[in-house]
Write a structure and sequence with these properties.
Length: 330
């Protein structure tokens, strides 16, 4: 049972969510394609990135089979999620791209996205830091793009911090890409990663930065509030995970800081539904009937029927949505 300031914060956030989005809880049926798990960064919490020799890049046959499985299972979204510009660091990957007839990862993503569109799926891509020209190219086939801001804390990118070996996690670099996506008017997903060592004032500063971007450009559709989860084999395997109270406060802060037309999303495989709803969340993001959450492999997606029943017991109705939101709050 919540008490005190967190309870008041959650109540205000829930009321705000109810006014803006009603008691509907949306989700996007997706198929998840980790095109390559090579990445030029090394974030201390990441279990997705693999070393050369243990890496995997999806070949066109695998892309095709995965897309078809998604389509057959009724998915509408094809999520392409991968590491940052691996061709700049790994010669064997560069050679693999050459063999496939692509000059860059973005080229390969455009081809894969085109195939997704042909199969009736809507691609959404999160490929790390992209130039404006790469974003323009990707938008030939994608309906939206994404980049988690994660945090604006420069402290966490200093020596000893989780982003010290991840130059693309420099907040200025990420804010610049978000600004460019805004100038281009690209429907965009961003978000915060909660529990990697940021303070609450730093979390608030990050959410305010997203709000200012959103107000300047109006292209940010949704903000993900994602809790850190510890993975075996990473440098942060023993780092304490944020508890329900910390996550609930983060969701509530996001709902109260972001304007009403921005959807607040949190994944249902990383925390209990009641926590997400009590915090003021209105969306669960992509859930896949055919592919795992490759970023958090130990955390399986919950079954939709079970989630629907749980949501209903909590006073919410679950609804499918497309990767691009067809509405603003109201
Ligand atoms: S940038 Fe993403 S994929 Fe690369 S190491 Fe960091 S979290 Fe992992």
């Amino acid at each position: 049972m919540l008490e005190g300031p967190t309870s008041r914060l959650a109540r205000r956030a829930s009321q705000r969510r109810d006014r803006a989005w009603g008691r509907r809880l949306t989700w996007s049926p997706k198929v998840f394609l980790p095109l390559t798990n090579l990445c030029r960064n090394r974030c201390d919490y990441c279990a997705f990135r693999q070393r050369p020799g243990q890496d995997h890049t999806m070949l066109p046959d695998e892309v095709e089979a995965t897309l078809q499985a998604g389509r057959d299972a009724g998915c509408t979204e094809a999520l392409f999620c991968l590491g940052d510009t691996p061709e700049s660091m790994f010669p064997h990957y560069r050679a693999q791209l050459d063999e496939l007839g692509h000059e860059s990862t973005v080229d390969y993503l455009v081809a894969a996205g085109r195939r997704a569109v042909e199969l009736g799926l809507q691609p959404h891509t999160n490929a790390g830091i992209l130039s404006s020209s790469d974003m323009i190219r990707l938008m030939e086939v994608n309906v939206s793009l994404g980049l988690m801001l994660e945090t604006t804390s420069e402290r966490l990118a200093e020596r000893g911090g989780p982003h010290a070996a991840a130059p693309d996690k420099n907040p200025a670099v990420r804010l610049r890409m978000l600004e460019e996506a805004g100038h281009l008017g690209i429907p965009f997903t961003t978000g915060v990663l909660v529990g990697i060592g940021e303070t609450e004032p730093e979390l608030i500063e990050t959410l305010v930065a997203i709000r200012e971007l959103s107000r300047r450009h109006g292209n940010i559709q949704e903000v993900i509030v994602q809790p850190f989860r510890a993975h075996a084999g990473t440098r942060m395997a023993d780092w304490p995970e944020p508890d329900d109270q910390v996550l609930l406060r983060a969701i509530a802060l996001a709902r109260l800081i972001l304007d009403d037309d921005v959807s607040i999303q949190s994944p249902p495989n990383l925390a209990g539904l009641e926590v997400l709803l009590d915090g003021g969340c209105n969306d669960l993001g992509g859930i896949s009937p055919v592919t795992p959450d490759f970023i958090n492999l130990e955390h399986a997606w919950p079954h939709i029927a079970g989630l629907e029943a749980e949501a209903e017991a909590l006073g919410f109705r679950m609804e499918r949505r497309l990767p691009v939101y067809g509405r603003v709050a109201g």
